[in-house]
Amino acid sequence: MKRLMIAFALTVLSGATFTAATQGLPVTKAPAGASAYIISPRDGATVPQSFTVRFGLKGMGVAPAGVEKAGTGHHHLLVDAKQLPAAGQPIPSDAHHIHFGGGQTQTTLKLAPGTHTLQLELGDAHHVPFDPPLVSKRITIHVK
C-alpha cells in the first residue's frame, strides 16, 4: 500500500511538472510591420570558411538580452536549423542556435566547407520568440 501511495504521488508530481513546462513563458507581441533580414551574405553566395554575417532589422530596435524595452529584441542566428524554435519557449543555445544577447548586429562565422543555411530569429528580453515570430528568410550559402 505504501508503494502504491508513493507511485501515485510521483505520478501526480511528474504530471504537474509536465504541465508547467508545456505552458511556456509570457510571449511578447511583435510590432506590426517589423521584420528581420540578413544583409550579407546574399542567398546563394559562395563564402570562405570564415566570413561575416550582418543582421538587419526593420520596425524595431536592438537591445541586449535582459533589457525589457518596448519595441526591442535581440538576434539569434539559426545555422543549419531544420525548424524554428518552439513558440513560448526560450530559443536554445547550441551549435544551431547562436545567441547575440549583447545586442550585436553582426558576427564572424567559421563553417566547414559545404552548403549551409542561415536564418535570423529575434528574441525578446528573455530569449523567447515574438508572436508572430520575427524571422528572416532562410538563405543558403556555399562555404569553399
Automatic annotation (TrEMBL):
Keywords noted in UniProt: Signal
InterPro entries, A to Z: DUF4399
Entries under Pfam families matching the protein: DUF4399
Domain DUF4399: 53-144
Signal sequence residues: 1-19
Name this protein carries in UniProt: DUF4399 domain-containing protein
Species this protein is from: Rhodanobacter glycinis
